[in-house]
TrEMBL record:
Species of the source: Nocardia tengchongensis
Pfam families registered for this protein in UniProt: Beta-lactamase
Domain Beta-lactamase-related residues, every copy: 17-372
SUPFAM superfamilies: beta-lactamase/transpeptidase-like
Gene3D superfamilies: DD-peptidase/beta-lactamase superfamily
Protein name from the UniProt record: Beta-lactamase family protein
Length: 383
């Protein structure tokens, strides 16, 4: 076992610590943290292992790490808050605030389409460099000029990277702030979508195990044909799945990438801060209860045109599905977003729960894995 596990746990949630410790003992984690709040009260705050296996730098209570697509929930919340405060409708056309967007058959696109992955722009049609991706206005303009892959609103397919710049443009045009600036000012100063040098320097270094160990571990049956189709898609450079998830392409250990504030995948934070974000969200600090209830209402479910397996979304929040497998007690009430390789952030309006798990070892080639599932299962068993 590398490193250690430290922190605090309410006695009622001791099983969460047991699960977390076991994940280091069996080599599933290199370094990680998990935090849980119930009714806004911290009941789990644990960290352990190594932030950097090359230097044996330990994971500390304030070690941040990139959380990949967990970012999308914060970006969506920023857009929802702006829309609510400025009395803008989800179903209003994007061209009302972004006239340049209404070309190539995109004039009927709504804010709800952007939030539910129905915009038809899951991938850039030309390579985008790390430097270009840091220019959010130019990156959004690229998308505004593209022709959609499908008629907006008629299908849903995971906009792995483009989701961020589309909604960043909405936030910027209504507030003058990028999503990263807005999130940091409004939701928490330990939430960085655009990490400054000193934060990037102490962030955990992310990595992946050998290819032979990167196997499917999600704890639910998914048709073998679906898994095979996905595997093939990720081997095909022309597939939507690969194009959507690898352009722009850059190492998330690169300070330039972390500083670029990629608004779909660039959140650098701690488990403690991510769980607090969800605790404040379910407590009504960021959105009124009726607005949040509408935002987590299922809008789309079914075969994802990009991922090929089932996915489901409210207004920006991912809901339990084949792409977000949760234990039975959480499936009817939990919402949030996983990140590539295991990270997860969840909220639950009914049980008043907030959960975050932030590892630096990417285990699966899909969002979510057994580590997060086991932790969530232990939390719900303790409620």
């Amino acid at each position: 076992m590398n490193g250690f596990v430290d922190g605090q746990v309410d006695p009622a949630f001791r099983a969460v610590r047991d699960v977390f410790e076991a994940s280091f003992a069996d080599g599933q984690n290199a370094g990680a943290a998990v935090a849980v709040l119930v009714d806004g009260r911290p009941v789990v705050d644990l960290w352990g292992g190594l932030a950097d296996t090359r230097s044996n730098r330990p994971w500390l209570p304030d070690t941040p790490v990139v959380t990949y697509s967990c970012t999308k929930a914060l970006t969506a919340t920023a857009a929802l808050q702006v829309a609510h405060r400025q009395s803008l409708g989800w179903d209003d056309p994007v061209t009302g605030w972004w006239p340049e967007y209404g070309v190539a058959g995109k004039d009927s696109t709504t804010l709800a389409d952007l939030l539910t992955h129905r915009a038809g722009l899951p991938a850039f049609d030309a390579p985008v460099s790390t430097a270009e991706a840091a220019d959010h206005r130019a990156t959004a303009a690229r998308l505004a000029g593209q022709r959609p892959v499908w008629k907006p609103g008629t299908e849903h397919g995971y906009h792995a990277m483009t989701f961020g710049w589309l909604l960043d443009e909405f936030v910027y045009r209504h507030t003058g702030f990028t999503v990263g600036e807005y999130v940091h000012r409004t939701f928490g100063d330990q939430l960085w979508i655009g990490a400054p040098p000193e934060v990037a320097a102490r962030a955990a270094r992310v990595g992946a195990p050998p290819a032979a160990e990167q196997a499917w571990t999600d704890p639910a049956p998914i048709a073998a044909a679906t898994v095979a189709e996905m595997a093939q898609a990720y081997r095909d450079p022309a597939s939507l799945a690969l194009r959507a998830s690898t352009n722009p392409l850059g190492s998330y250990n690169n300070p330039e990438v972390l500083a670029g504030g990629w608004p779909a995948t660039g959140l650098v934070t701690t488990a403690r801060a991510l769980a607090r974000f969800y605790a404040d969200l379910v407590a009504g600090e960021f959105l009124p209860a009726d607005v949040l209830a509408e935002a987590v209402r299922e809008r789309v479910r079914g075969r994802d045109t990009v991922l090929t397996l089932e996915s489901a979304f409210g207004l920006g929040y991912m809901l339990p599905s084949e792409n977000l497998i949760l234990p039975a007690p959480a499936r009817d009430t939990a919402f949030g977003h996983p990140g590539a390789g295991g990270a997860i952030g969840l909220g639950d309006n009914v049980n008043r729960v907030a959960i975050a798990f932030t590892p630096n070892l990417r285990r699966d080639w899909l969002s979510g894995d057994r580590r997060a599932y086991n932790l969530v299962d232990a939390v719900y068993s303790a409620l």
